Amino acid sequence: MKQLMKQLVMVVACAGAASAATAVADPAPKPADQANSWPRYAVEGIALGASLDKLVGFTCSDKAAVVTCVRFVDARCKGKPTQVQPTVAELPPGAGCGFILTGEDPRTYLDHQVQAVSLSAVIVYGTAKRRVFEVRHTFAREDLTEKSRLGKTLIARYGKPSSSVPPVRMLWTEGSTTTSAACDDEGGCSVMVTDLDLMLADEH
């Protein structure tokens, strides 16, 4: 009888431990849950998962590894033509405002001149199924702290960042969605949201 009672105690103890572990565990968000969070992290009104075909005012190119669409919001681009080209070598920068696909960092040009500081623009990258998996907004440099104008605006929109390196970076993560704000020493800032799981899912 004593042996049976010991076994029952052990079973209950193990079950309790398992229950506690289950309660503490933070399960990974399901795809549907992840998609529900995308509107919250929209950049310049564009949410992840949106159709590229419904973007308004963008110029797109499929010459890179992924479809890339650009809309310039820089005042100097008003009324000028927009171009998206693979590299400077393949096609010298033309008139108007342009986006160069080569490289990890956005490169832009204005009336034949490549800009050291990116023109203010909204850059969108699409999946194989033409859904938005990354949005990037580039603009003039500002300080990026919890007390700065830019920092307060982003925190009001996205909540307290997961991590930050003032005055140059803030980061928010939710599941496979990453939102970041970064300001460099060359005079530019960018806010970017991306979900690589979305890109990979659309490849199948």
Task: Name some characteristics of this structure.
204 residues, alpha+beta, 8-stranded antiparallel β-sheet, 4-stranded mixed β-sheet, 4 helices, 30% strand
Give structural notes:
- The strands form two sheets. The chain has an eight-stranded antiparallel sheet with strand order 1-2-7-8-12-11-10-9. Strands 3-4-5-6 form a four-stranded mixed sheet, with no helix packed on it.
- The chain is 23% helix and 30% strand.
- The termini are far apart.
- It has helices at residues 2-24, 31-37, 149-158, 196-201, and strands at 59-61, 67-72, 82-85, 97-100, 107-110, 113-114, 121-126, 132-140, 163-165, 169-174, 177-183, 188-195.
Number of strands: 12
What structural category arises from helix and sheet content?
alpha+beta
Helical segment count: 4
The chain-level mean pLDDT equals 83
Distance from N terminus to C terminus (CA atoms, Å) equals 59 Å
Query: How many whole angstroms does the radius of gyration measure?
Result: 23 Å
Strand content range? 25-35%
Low-confidence stretches: 1-28
Binned, the helix content reads: 10-25%
Summarize the biggest pleated sheet.
Answer: 8 strands, antiparallel
Main sheet: strand order: 1-2-7-8-12-11-10-9
